[in-house]
Fold this sequence. Notes:
alpha+beta; 5-stranded parallel β-sheet; 8-stranded antiparallel β-sheet; globular
Amino acid sequence: MQPNYLQLTQMFKRILVANRGEIALRIIRACHELNIETVAVYSIADRDAEHVRCADHAICIGESAPSKSYLNASVIISAAELVGADAIHPGYGFLAENALFAEMCEASGFHFIGPKPESISLMGDKISAIKALKPFGIEPVPGSSDFDSDKSLAQCADAIGYPVLIKSAFAGGGRGMRIVTSAKELPQAMKEAELEAEHACQNRTVYVEKYLESPRHIEFQVLSDAFGNVLILGERDCSIQRRYQKIIEEAPALNLPDDQLKTLHGKITKALQSLSYIGAGTLEFLYQDGHFYFIEMNTRLQVEHPVTEEIFDVDIVKEQINIASGHTLSIINPKQNGHAIECRIVAEDPVKGIPSPGVITQLRLPGGPGVRIESDLYQGQMVSPYYDPMICKIVVHAKTRDDAIKRMQCALSHLLIEGISTNREALIDIIQQSWYKNLKSTTHSLNLHFKAAKDVISS
Protein backbone atom coordinates (compact mmCIF):
# COMPACT_ATOMS: atom_id res chain seq x y z
CA MET A 1 0.00 0.00 0.00
CA GLN A 2 1.34 3.44 -0.91
CA PRO A 3 1.86 6.03 1.82
CA ASN A 4 -0.47 9.00 2.09
CA TYR A 5 1.78 11.62 0.52
CA LEU A 6 -0.94 14.28 0.85
CA GLN A 7 -0.28 14.31 4.58
CA LEU A 8 3.43 14.80 4.06
CA THR A 9 4.15 17.23 1.25
CA GLN A 10 2.69 20.51 2.42
CA MET A 11 5.82 22.56 1.77
CA PHE A 12 5.46 22.95 -2.00
CA LYS A 13 2.53 24.75 -3.58
CA ARG A 14 3.96 25.16 -7.09
CA ILE A 15 6.68 23.13 -8.84
CA LEU A 16 8.36 24.06 -12.12
CA VAL A 17 9.23 21.04 -14.28
CA ALA A 18 12.47 21.76 -16.10
CA ASN A 19 12.02 19.17 -18.81
CA ARG A 20 9.82 18.05 -21.69
CA GLY A 21 8.11 15.02 -23.18
CA GLU A 22 6.92 11.97 -21.30
CA ILE A 23 8.98 12.62 -18.17
CA ALA A 24 7.61 16.15 -17.81
CA LEU A 25 4.09 14.74 -18.14
CA ARG A 26 4.91 12.01 -15.60
CA ILE A 27 6.06 14.59 -13.03
CA ILE A 28 3.10 16.89 -13.68
CA ARG A 29 0.65 14.07 -13.04
CA ALA A 30 2.36 13.12 -9.78
CA CYS A 31 2.24 16.75 -8.63
CA HIS A 32 -1.47 17.04 -9.46
CA GLU A 33 -2.20 13.94 -7.39
CA LEU A 34 -0.47 15.76 -4.53
CA ASN A 35 -2.54 18.92 -5.12
CA ILE A 36 0.60 20.79 -6.18
CA GLU A 37 0.38 23.32 -9.02
CA THR A 38 2.75 22.79 -11.92
CA VAL A 39 4.64 25.02 -14.30
CA ALA A 40 5.72 23.71 -17.70
CA VAL A 41 8.57 25.24 -19.64
CA TYR A 42 8.73 24.72 -23.37
CA SER A 43 10.68 25.57 -26.49
CA ILE A 44 9.12 26.91 -29.66
CA ALA A 45 9.11 23.38 -31.09
CA ASP A 46 7.10 22.15 -28.09
CA ARG A 47 4.43 24.83 -27.96
CA ASP A 48 1.70 22.23 -28.68
CA ALA A 49 3.19 19.49 -26.49
CA GLU A 50 1.08 17.53 -24.02
CA HIS A 51 3.11 18.59 -20.99
CA VAL A 52 2.32 22.21 -21.88
CA ARG A 53 -1.39 21.49 -22.12
CA CYS A 54 -1.56 19.54 -18.86
CA ALA A 55 0.39 21.95 -16.63
CA ASP A 56 -1.34 24.71 -14.64
CA HIS A 57 1.04 27.31 -16.07
CA ALA A 58 3.39 27.30 -19.05
CA ILE A 59 6.24 29.55 -20.13
CA CYS A 60 8.15 29.58 -23.41
CA ILE A 61 11.86 29.59 -22.63
CA GLY A 62 13.44 29.89 -26.06
CA GLU A 63 14.20 28.43 -29.43
CA SER A 64 13.95 24.76 -30.40
CA ALA A 65 17.62 23.89 -29.94
CA PRO A 66 18.17 22.53 -26.38
CA SER A 67 21.12 24.88 -25.83
CA LYS A 68 18.74 27.81 -26.29
CA SER A 69 15.91 26.44 -24.13
CA TYR A 70 16.02 23.33 -21.95
CA LEU A 71 19.75 23.68 -21.27
CA ASN A 72 19.54 27.40 -20.55
CA ALA A 73 19.73 27.38 -16.76
CA SER A 74 19.42 31.14 -16.31
CA VAL A 75 16.21 31.34 -18.34
CA ILE A 76 14.68 28.44 -16.41
CA ILE A 77 15.52 30.11 -13.10
CA SER A 78 13.96 33.34 -14.38
CA ALA A 79 10.81 31.44 -15.35
CA ALA A 80 10.57 29.98 -11.85
CA GLU A 81 10.92 33.45 -10.37
CA LEU A 82 8.28 34.85 -12.71
CA VAL A 83 5.62 32.32 -11.70
CA GLY A 84 6.54 32.11 -8.02
CA ALA A 85 7.53 28.45 -7.97
CA ASP A 86 8.66 26.84 -4.72
CA ALA A 87 10.75 24.08 -6.26
CA ILE A 88 12.21 22.81 -9.53
CA HIS A 89 12.12 19.18 -10.69
CA PRO A 90 14.69 18.48 -13.43
CA GLY A 91 13.41 15.06 -14.54
CA TYR A 92 16.20 13.23 -16.37
CA GLY A 93 18.56 14.41 -19.09
CA PHE A 94 19.16 18.09 -19.83
CA LEU A 95 20.09 19.75 -16.49
CA ALA A 96 19.15 16.87 -14.17
CA GLU A 97 22.76 16.05 -13.28
CA ASN A 98 24.17 19.54 -13.57
CA ALA A 99 25.62 20.53 -10.20
CA LEU A 100 25.85 24.19 -11.20
CA PHE A 101 22.13 24.26 -12.01
CA ALA A 102 21.32 22.71 -8.63
CA GLU A 103 23.46 25.39 -6.97
CA MET A 104 21.69 28.11 -8.96
CA CYS A 105 18.31 26.79 -7.83
CA GLU A 106 19.33 26.87 -4.18
CA ALA A 107 21.00 30.27 -4.47
CA SER A 108 17.83 31.66 -6.03
CA GLY A 109 15.66 30.34 -3.22
CA PHE A 110 14.20 27.29 -4.96
CA HIS A 111 14.26 23.73 -3.70
CA PHE A 112 16.02 21.48 -6.20
CA ILE A 113 14.19 18.15 -6.27
CA GLY A 114 17.27 16.01 -6.41
CA PRO A 115 20.54 15.42 -4.56
CA LYS A 116 22.71 18.19 -3.19
CA PRO A 117 25.07 19.89 -5.69
CA GLU A 118 28.12 18.35 -4.05
CA SER A 119 26.67 14.83 -4.49
CA ILE A 120 25.87 15.51 -8.14
CA SER A 121 29.39 16.80 -8.69
CA LEU A 122 31.00 13.85 -6.90
CA MET A 123 29.05 11.18 -8.73
CA GLY A 124 28.81 13.02 -12.07
CA ASP A 125 32.50 12.35 -12.61
CA LYS A 126 32.90 8.58 -12.98
CA ILE A 127 36.49 8.80 -11.80
CA SER A 128 35.65 10.58 -8.54
CA ALA A 129 32.61 8.30 -8.05
CA ILE A 130 34.82 5.22 -8.26
CA LYS A 131 37.29 6.74 -5.81
CA ALA A 132 34.51 7.71 -3.40
CA LEU A 133 32.87 4.28 -3.29
CA LYS A 134 35.92 2.02 -3.37
CA PRO A 135 36.72 2.50 0.36
CA PHE A 136 33.35 0.91 1.14
CA GLY A 137 34.26 -2.26 -0.74
CA ILE A 138 32.37 -1.31 -3.90
CA GLU A 139 34.87 -2.38 -6.54
CA PRO A 140 35.18 -0.95 -10.09
CA VAL A 141 35.84 -2.85 -13.29
CA PRO A 142 39.41 -4.23 -13.24
CA GLY A 143 41.76 -1.51 -14.36
CA SER A 144 39.54 1.40 -13.39
CA SER A 145 41.67 2.15 -10.36
CA ASP A 146 44.78 2.73 -12.49
CA PHE A 147 43.60 6.11 -13.76
CA ASP A 148 44.86 7.89 -10.62
CA SER A 149 48.46 6.80 -11.15
CA ASP A 150 51.15 8.78 -12.93
CA LYS A 151 51.13 6.33 -15.81
CA SER A 152 49.82 7.32 -19.20
CA LEU A 153 46.65 5.70 -20.49
CA ALA A 154 48.83 3.64 -22.83
CA GLN A 155 50.83 2.24 -19.91
CA CYS A 156 47.62 1.53 -18.02
CA ALA A 157 46.16 -0.28 -21.02
CA ASP A 158 49.29 -2.43 -21.32
CA ALA A 159 49.12 -3.25 -17.62
CA ILE A 160 45.41 -4.15 -17.77
CA GLY A 161 45.75 -6.23 -20.92
CA TYR A 162 43.79 -5.92 -24.15
CA PRO A 163 40.98 -5.61 -25.03
CA VAL A 164 40.33 -2.47 -23.01
CA LEU A 165 37.61 0.13 -22.96
CA ILE A 166 38.28 3.87 -23.13
CA LYS A 167 35.50 5.75 -21.35
CA SER A 168 34.51 9.35 -20.82
CA ALA A 169 34.61 10.42 -17.19
CA PHE A 170 31.47 12.53 -17.61
CA ALA A 171 29.46 11.59 -20.71
CA GLY A 172 26.83 8.84 -20.70
CA GLY A 173 24.99 6.73 -23.25
CA GLY A 174 28.18 5.33 -24.75
CA ARG A 175 29.46 8.71 -25.89
CA GLY A 176 33.22 8.95 -25.61
CA MET A 177 33.51 5.16 -25.41
CA ARG A 178 35.81 3.03 -27.56
CA ILE A 179 36.80 -0.66 -27.51
CA VAL A 180 40.52 -1.11 -28.15
CA THR A 181 41.98 -4.51 -29.00
CA SER A 182 45.65 -3.60 -29.45
CA ALA A 183 48.22 -0.93 -28.59
CA LYS A 184 48.29 0.06 -32.26
CA GLU A 185 44.63 1.14 -32.12
CA LEU A 186 44.98 3.10 -28.87
CA PRO A 187 46.15 6.56 -30.06
CA GLN A 188 43.37 6.98 -32.64
CA ALA A 189 40.72 5.52 -30.34
CA MET A 190 41.81 7.82 -27.52
CA LYS A 191 41.65 10.86 -29.80
CA GLU A 192 38.16 9.92 -31.01
CA ALA A 193 36.94 9.25 -27.47
CA GLU A 194 38.24 12.58 -26.18
CA LEU A 195 36.68 14.55 -29.04
CA GLU A 196 33.33 12.80 -28.67
CA ALA A 197 33.36 13.30 -24.91
CA GLU A 198 34.16 16.99 -25.29
CA HIS A 199 31.34 17.42 -27.78
CA ALA A 200 28.88 15.59 -25.49
CA CYS A 201 29.67 17.28 -22.19
CA GLN A 202 32.39 19.91 -22.75
CA ASN A 203 34.95 17.77 -20.91
CA ARG A 204 37.43 15.51 -22.73
CA THR A 205 38.63 13.57 -19.65
CA VAL A 206 38.76 9.82 -20.34
CA TYR A 207 40.06 6.77 -18.52
CA VAL A 208 40.68 3.11 -19.34
CA GLU A 209 39.35 -0.15 -17.92
CA LYS A 210 39.21 -3.84 -18.81
CA TYR A 211 36.70 -4.70 -21.53
CA LEU A 212 34.36 -7.37 -20.17
CA GLU A 213 33.33 -9.96 -22.75
CA SER A 214 29.91 -11.06 -21.45
CA PRO A 215 28.58 -8.91 -18.59
CA ARG A 216 25.02 -8.25 -17.45
CA HIS A 217 24.08 -4.66 -16.64
CA ILE A 218 22.54 -4.64 -13.15
CA GLU A 219 21.47 -1.49 -11.33
CA PHE A 220 20.22 -0.68 -7.85
CA GLN A 221 17.48 1.90 -7.26
CA VAL A 222 18.09 3.88 -4.08
CA LEU A 223 16.22 6.49 -2.08
CA SER A 224 17.87 8.38 0.78
CA ASP A 225 16.57 11.10 3.06
CA ALA A 226 18.30 13.80 5.11
CA PHE A 227 18.01 11.69 8.28
CA GLY A 228 20.33 8.90 7.18
CA ASN A 229 17.64 6.50 6.04
CA VAL A 230 18.55 4.54 2.91
CA LEU A 231 16.18 2.30 0.98
CA ILE A 232 17.28 0.01 -1.85
CA LEU A 233 14.34 -0.87 -4.08
CA GLY A 234 15.75 -4.04 -5.55
CA GLU A 235 17.64 -4.55 -8.76
CA ARG A 236 16.93 -3.96 -12.44
CA ASP A 237 18.43 -5.85 -15.35
CA CYS A 238 19.25 -3.43 -18.18
CA SER A 239 21.45 -5.69 -20.28
CA ILE A 240 19.51 -5.28 -23.54
CA GLN A 241 21.37 -2.37 -25.14
CA ARG A 242 21.97 -1.12 -28.66
CA ARG A 243 25.07 1.02 -29.13
CA TYR A 244 25.34 1.35 -25.34
CA GLN A 245 21.75 2.64 -25.13
CA LYS A 246 19.29 0.65 -23.02
CA ILE A 247 16.14 -0.33 -24.87
CA ILE A 248 14.63 -3.07 -22.66
CA GLU A 249 14.75 -3.08 -18.86
CA GLU A 250 13.17 -5.36 -16.30
CA ALA A 251 12.79 -5.93 -12.59
CA PRO A 252 13.62 -7.86 -10.59
CA ALA A 253 16.99 -8.93 -11.98
CA LEU A 254 16.89 -12.72 -11.77
CA ASN A 255 19.52 -15.42 -11.22
CA LEU A 256 21.74 -13.38 -8.91
CA PRO A 257 23.17 -14.86 -5.66
CA ASP A 258 21.15 -13.71 -2.63
CA ASP A 259 24.21 -13.61 -0.39
CA GLN A 260 26.08 -11.33 -2.79
CA LEU A 261 23.08 -9.03 -3.13
CA LYS A 262 22.67 -8.81 0.65
CA THR A 263 26.35 -7.95 1.08
CA LEU A 264 26.28 -5.35 -1.69
CA HIS A 265 23.10 -3.78 -0.28
CA GLY A 266 24.93 -3.31 3.01
CA LYS A 267 27.92 -1.69 1.31
CA ILE A 268 25.72 0.67 -0.72
CA THR A 269 23.73 1.67 2.37
CA LYS A 270 26.86 2.42 4.37
CA ALA A 271 28.40 4.40 1.50
CA LEU A 272 25.33 6.59 0.93
CA GLN A 273 24.97 7.26 4.64
CA SER A 274 28.64 8.21 4.97
CA LEU A 275 28.46 10.44 1.89
CA SER A 276 25.22 12.10 3.14
CA TYR A 277 23.45 11.33 -0.12
CA ILE A 278 19.89 12.69 -0.27
CA GLY A 279 17.27 11.88 -2.91
CA ALA A 280 16.79 9.26 -5.62
CA GLY A 281 19.70 7.66 -7.40
CA THR A 282 20.86 4.57 -9.23
CA LEU A 283 24.11 2.67 -8.83
CA GLU A 284 25.03 0.78 -11.99
CA PHE A 285 27.15 -2.36 -12.12
CA LEU A 286 28.43 -4.91 -14.60
CA TYR A 287 28.03 -8.48 -13.40
CA GLN A 288 30.29 -11.21 -14.81
CA ASP A 289 31.83 -14.41 -13.51
CA GLY A 290 30.18 -14.01 -10.12
CA HIS A 291 31.45 -10.47 -9.51
CA PHE A 292 29.72 -7.08 -9.36
CA TYR A 293 31.79 -4.23 -10.83
CA PHE A 294 30.68 -0.65 -10.21
CA ILE A 295 30.65 1.61 -13.28
CA GLU A 296 28.71 4.76 -12.35
CA MET A 297 25.99 6.38 -10.28
CA ASN A 298 23.18 8.44 -11.76
CA THR A 299 22.00 11.13 -9.35
CA ARG A 300 18.52 11.46 -10.82
CA LEU A 301 15.37 9.67 -11.82
CA GLN A 302 16.07 6.92 -14.35
CA VAL A 303 14.18 6.39 -17.59
CA GLU A 304 13.48 2.83 -16.40
CA HIS A 305 12.13 3.74 -12.95
CA PRO A 306 8.59 2.46 -13.81
CA VAL A 307 9.61 -1.22 -13.64
CA THR A 308 10.71 -0.72 -10.04
CA GLU A 309 7.53 1.17 -9.23
CA GLU A 310 5.42 -1.65 -10.68
CA ILE A 311 6.94 -4.49 -8.66
CA PHE A 312 7.04 -2.52 -5.38
CA ASP A 313 3.82 -0.51 -5.84
CA VAL A 314 5.53 2.79 -5.03
CA ASP A 315 5.75 6.21 -6.68
CA ILE A 316 9.39 7.27 -6.90
CA VAL A 317 8.53 10.76 -8.20
CA LYS A 318 6.26 11.44 -5.24
CA GLU A 319 8.97 10.11 -2.94
CA GLN A 320 11.47 12.53 -4.52
CA ILE A 321 9.11 15.40 -3.73
CA ASN A 322 8.57 14.07 -0.23
CA ILE A 323 12.31 13.88 0.46
CA ALA A 324 12.91 17.35 -0.99
CA SER A 325 10.18 18.62 1.33
CA GLY A 326 12.40 17.67 4.26
CA HIS A 327 10.49 14.57 5.36
CA THR A 328 11.79 11.13 6.17
CA LEU A 329 11.32 8.27 3.75
CA SER A 330 7.66 7.31 3.78
CA ILE A 331 8.23 3.85 2.31
CA ILE A 332 8.88 1.21 4.95
CA ASN A 333 9.83 -2.36 4.03
CA PRO A 334 8.01 -2.49 0.67
CA LYS A 335 7.11 -5.96 -0.61
CA GLN A 336 8.15 -7.10 -4.06
CA ASN A 337 5.46 -8.56 -6.30
CA GLY A 338 5.67 -10.08 -9.76
CA HIS A 339 7.80 -9.06 -12.72
CA ALA A 340 7.87 -5.91 -14.87
CA ILE A 341 9.40 -5.18 -18.28
CA GLU A 342 9.85 -1.85 -20.05
CA CYS A 343 10.42 -1.37 -23.78
CA ARG A 344 11.58 1.99 -25.13
CA ILE A 345 9.90 3.01 -28.37
CA VAL A 346 12.36 5.08 -30.38
CA ALA A 347 11.66 7.16 -33.48
CA GLU A 348 14.42 5.83 -35.68
CA ASP A 349 15.12 3.82 -38.78
CA PRO A 350 16.03 0.46 -37.19
CA VAL A 351 18.19 -0.59 -40.14
CA LYS A 352 20.19 2.59 -40.57
CA GLY A 353 20.05 3.47 -36.89
CA ILE A 354 19.26 7.13 -37.53
CA PRO A 355 16.45 9.27 -36.04
CA SER A 356 13.13 9.41 -37.88
CA PRO A 357 11.42 12.73 -37.14
CA GLY A 358 8.08 13.59 -38.72
CA VAL A 359 4.34 13.85 -38.17
CA ILE A 360 2.44 10.99 -36.52
CA THR A 361 -0.38 10.30 -38.96
CA GLN A 362 -1.92 7.31 -37.14
CA LEU A 363 -1.63 6.34 -33.48
CA ARG A 364 -2.94 3.43 -31.43
CA LEU A 365 -1.53 2.80 -27.96
CA PRO A 366 -1.99 -0.57 -26.24
CA GLY A 367 -3.85 -1.06 -22.97
CA GLY A 368 -5.43 -3.63 -20.73
CA PRO A 369 -4.55 -5.11 -17.31
CA GLY A 370 -0.92 -4.73 -16.34
CA VAL A 371 -0.06 -2.37 -19.23
CA ARG A 372 1.32 1.11 -18.49
CA ILE A 373 2.10 3.69 -21.15
CA GLU A 374 4.59 6.49 -20.47
CA SER A 375 4.18 8.85 -23.41
CA ASP A 376 3.09 12.29 -24.55
CA LEU A 377 2.22 11.17 -28.07
CA TYR A 378 -0.91 12.22 -29.93
CA GLN A 379 -2.10 11.86 -33.51
CA GLY A 380 -0.91 14.75 -35.64
CA GLN A 381 2.06 15.43 -33.39
CA MET A 382 5.33 16.54 -34.95
CA VAL A 383 8.20 14.42 -33.60
CA SER A 384 10.99 16.96 -33.51
CA PRO A 385 14.53 16.32 -34.76
CA TYR A 386 15.91 18.48 -31.94
CA TYR A 387 15.49 16.05 -29.04
CA ASP A 388 16.10 12.47 -27.93
CA PRO A 389 14.29 10.09 -30.30
CA MET A 390 12.69 8.06 -27.48
CA ILE A 391 8.98 8.83 -27.82
CA CYS A 392 7.22 6.25 -25.67
CA LYS A 393 7.77 3.61 -23.00
CA ILE A 394 5.59 0.53 -22.71
CA VAL A 395 5.68 -1.06 -19.27
CA VAL A 396 4.00 -4.35 -18.38
CA HIS A 397 3.56 -6.06 -15.02
CA ALA A 398 2.57 -9.69 -14.44
CA LYS A 399 2.91 -12.46 -11.85
CA THR A 400 5.89 -14.11 -13.57
CA ARG A 401 8.55 -13.15 -16.09
CA ASP A 402 7.09 -15.51 -18.69
CA ASP A 403 3.69 -13.88 -18.28
CA ALA A 404 5.28 -10.42 -18.50
CA ILE A 405 7.00 -11.37 -21.78
CA LYS A 406 3.70 -12.60 -23.24
CA ARG A 407 1.97 -9.41 -22.10
CA MET A 408 4.69 -7.28 -23.70
CA GLN A 409 4.41 -9.21 -26.96
CA CYS A 410 0.69 -8.49 -27.00
CA ALA A 411 1.18 -4.81 -26.16
CA LEU A 412 3.81 -4.30 -28.87
CA SER A 413 1.65 -6.08 -31.45
CA HIS A 414 -1.22 -3.67 -30.66
CA LEU A 415 0.96 -0.57 -30.89
CA LEU A 416 0.47 1.44 -34.08
CA ILE A 417 2.55 4.49 -34.94
CA GLU A 418 2.47 5.64 -38.56
CA GLY A 419 4.14 8.57 -40.27
CA ILE A 420 7.55 7.85 -38.75
CA SER A 421 9.77 4.79 -38.39
CA THR A 422 10.15 3.13 -34.99
CA ASN A 423 11.95 0.18 -33.43
CA ARG A 424 8.71 -1.68 -32.65
CA GLU A 425 9.42 -4.66 -34.92
CA ALA A 426 12.96 -4.96 -33.56
CA LEU A 427 11.61 -5.10 -29.99
CA ILE A 428 9.11 -7.82 -30.94
CA ASP A 429 11.97 -9.76 -32.51
CA ILE A 430 14.19 -9.42 -29.44
CA ILE A 431 11.72 -10.61 -26.81
CA GLN A 432 10.96 -13.70 -28.92
CA GLN A 433 14.61 -14.81 -28.95
CA SER A 434 15.48 -17.89 -26.90
CA TRP A 435 18.54 -16.21 -25.41
CA TYR A 436 16.31 -13.44 -24.04
CA LYS A 437 13.58 -15.74 -22.78
CA ASN A 438 16.15 -18.04 -21.11
CA LEU A 439 17.96 -15.24 -19.23
CA LYS A 440 21.12 -15.52 -21.34
CA SER A 441 21.30 -11.83 -22.24
CA THR A 442 24.47 -9.78 -21.85
CA THR A 443 25.22 -6.19 -22.81
CA HIS A 444 26.64 -7.52 -26.09
CA SER A 445 23.74 -9.83 -27.03
CA LEU A 446 21.88 -7.28 -29.08
CA ASN A 447 24.83 -6.17 -31.18
CA LEU A 448 25.62 -9.83 -31.93
CA HIS A 449 21.97 -10.51 -32.74
CA PHE A 450 21.68 -7.60 -35.18
CA LYS A 451 25.02 -8.49 -36.76
CA ALA A 452 23.84 -12.07 -37.28
CA ALA A 453 20.56 -10.85 -38.79
CA LYS A 454 22.44 -8.48 -41.10
CA ASP A 455 24.79 -11.28 -42.19
CA VAL A 456 21.81 -13.52 -43.03
CA ILE A 457 20.17 -10.75 -45.07
CA SER A 458 23.39 -9.91 -46.93
CA SER A 459 24.04 -13.56 -47.76
